[in-house]
Write a structure and sequence with these properties.
heterodimer, A: about 280 residues, B: about 290 residues, alpha/beta, Rossmann fold, 2 domains, 12 helices, 10 strands
Chain lengths: ~280, ~290
């Protein structure tokens, strides 16, 4: 394991919210969550190059109009490049459907395999880039607000919607804090000659202890302090709490739902017609 | 074993929207056996600067040399780190072992000392921070806050560094423990001739202990000299959000009221003498 990932996470801040005033930013978080789910359903029911082309164009349009910078969207693909690469390679080498394209010793590449590999890769890339728009254009607070609101109906069957949302907010809030803390402890231990970068797997796992023990202790200490601070401000769960920002659907949300449904209908139509 | 910092600049996350220039063209030589205090507002680059001292951070531009060894080369870093120990802010947060002994032994073991040597180094470090050897077999998490901090300091000292860098070593301590820690640091310099660099916000500490003060602002050195000279620059210090020690402030206002006393006074004894002289107390008694 390389320590690059700690650096990577702090530098990239995957899915970090980028404030803006595009129409995607203005959508209600509930709309964005539901439409993202709908998008995934549409993506997985698409068949054929043209259907993917339609979805890709639509995604490109949304990504460009969200104005979060194409680089930030592409960055979200970075951590998954290896998986995408493996998908293509494995499909290409082991799927023996269709005509034989190339034969290199024991390795054969078939038309079907190449086709499926590329389809799966584009499906993954579309999935990641589009869903990253959700977190790039929605602040974590709005996002959890939206989730809490959407989960409300399930309260009757005993789902603790507010508590779940609060837990998510706190978890998201503490990711950067804990990463900074981890870097600090790493530096302190490196000053004492700790080596996180060399040795075999067993040695490296052992080298983690001086980092993980203090990190856990500090996480528990923070949790304790936070619980105390919340209690000191009379927090007692979601019952009867009012909100500063009340979620409200607007005409924009209706247009968004309409557009996405139209794309969905088109994709299903293309599938039925076999285009 | 001097540290030489030549023309050093450091930029965080270069080439991204989060780019920050933390150090800008720093020139600094830390002489053997000196007691240097680095002061400056939060965000002035103090922490970035001290992390250059043992190669935790490598400069974007310029050279850092410890005893003639550049921190640029990865292979030399372990050697540099055994010579320059850094005690970070709240060092007790880095304790992790089951017993105090094992925790202090972590550094020297990494440096490749034999078991016998490690034992000796740990005991010496415990004595240097004035801790009872009976604590060695206890869990570090059962100790008091002040003891934990001293154990953490011992963990750095056990590598027998020639130079010790401390980032706000007295933050969050009660006055008694705080004096104890400061006197321990002073003793390390006086008795074991370890060079001390201390980052602090407490001007009284600086006035009492340091023989050189380096003032940072926006990643640049704005003042550098003996405490008397630096604290004479009240206006310059105030303009970058720093303050002078209370005694200096008192004497500056006495001078402004027309008293004939020096404007910069660092210790209580000096202050008492200056006031007595001005009032002529000593003469009348005879």
């Amino acid at each position: 394991m390389n320590w690059g990932w700690v650096k990577m996470l702090t530098n990239i801040n995957f899915g970090q919210f980028i404030p803006g005033d595009s129409f995607v930013h203005k959508l209600d978080p509930r709309t964005k969550i539901l439409l993202t789910i709908l998008y995934i359903v549409i993506l997985f029911s698409a068949r054929g190059v043209f259907a993917y082309g339609v979805i890709a164009l639509f995604s490109l349009f949304i990504i460009l109009s969200a104005k979060t910078g194409v680089r930030n969207v592409l960055r979200s693909v970075k951590p998954l490049i290896i998986i995408i690469f493996l998908t293509v390679v494995l499909h290409t080498l082991f799927n023996k459907e269709g005509a034989l394209l190339l034969k290199l010793g024991p390795l054969t590449i078939h038309e079907g395999g190449l086709y499926f590999g590329l389809m799966m890769a584009s499906r993954l890339i579309l999935l990641i880039t589009f869903t990253s728009i959700l977190t790039l254009t929605t602040s974590p607070i709005a996002l959890t607000d939206g989730i809490e609101n959407l989960l409300k109906p399930f309260k009757r069957i005993g789902l603790p919607a507010h508590e779940l949302a609060m837990m998510m907010t706190i978890a998201l809030r503490f990711i950067p804090t804990l990463l900074t803390e981890a870097q600090k402890i790493m530096k302190a231990q490196q000053s004492r000659g700790a080596d996180f970068e060399s040795g075999n797997i067993l040695e490296r796992a052992k080298a983690l202890l001086p980092l993980l023990v203090p990190l856990f202790i500090s996480a528990f200490r923070r949790a304790d302090e936070l619980a105390m601070a919340m209690e000191a401000r009379c927090y007692r769960g979601g019952e009867g709490r009012t909100r500063m920002k009340i979620l409200k659907m607007s005409g924009l949300d209706i247009i968004a739902f309409g557009t996405m449904s139209m794309v969905g209908v088109l994709i299903v139509y293309m599938r039925v017609q076999g285009i | 074993m001097p540290i030489e910092i030549r023309n050093v600049s450091y930029t965080y996350s270069p080439g991204t929207p989060f780019e920050i220039k933390a150090l800008d063209n720093i020139e600094l030589t830390i002489e053997d056996n000196s007691f240097v205090a680095i002061i400056g507002q939060t965000g002035s680059g103090k922490s970035t600067l001290i992390q250059h001292f043992n190669g935790l951070i490598v400069p974007t531009q310029g050279v850092v040399e410890v005893n003639g060894i550049s921190t640029q080369d990865k292979k030399d870093r372990k050697k540099v780190r055994s010579q320059v120990g850094i005690v970070f802010q709240y060092p007790e947060h880095q304790l992790f072992e089951e017993t105090v002994f094992l925790d202090i032994a972590f550094g020297p073991k990494n440096m490749g000392y034999s078991d016998e040597e490690v034992k000796q180094l740990v005991e010496n470090a415990m004595k240097a921070v004035d801790l009872d050897l009976a604590l060695l077999e206890k869990s570090p998490f059962d100790l008091s806050g002040g003891q934990m901090r001293r154990v953490a300091m011992a963990g750095v000292l056990a590598m027998s560094p020639k130079m010790l860098i401390l980032d706000e070593p007295t933050a969050g301590l009660d006055p008694i423990t705080r004096n104890k820690v400061l006197n321990l640091i002073k003793e390390l310099r006086d008795k074991q001739s370890i060079t001390i660099v201390i980052v602090t916000h407490d001007m009284t500490e600086v006035a009492h202990f340091a023989d050189r003060v380096v003032v940072l602002n926006n990643g640049q050195i704005v003042l550098d000299g003996i405490p008397k000279d630096v604290f004479g620059e009240t206006k310059a210090l105030k303009s970058i959000g720093l303050d002078v020690p209370p005694l200096t402030a008192l004497f500056t206002s006495l001078v402004n009221k027309g008293w004939n006393v020096p404007s910069v006074v660092l210790t209580l004894e000096e202050a008492a003498k200056a006031i007595k002289d001005e009032l002529g107390v000593g003469k009348n008694v005879d």
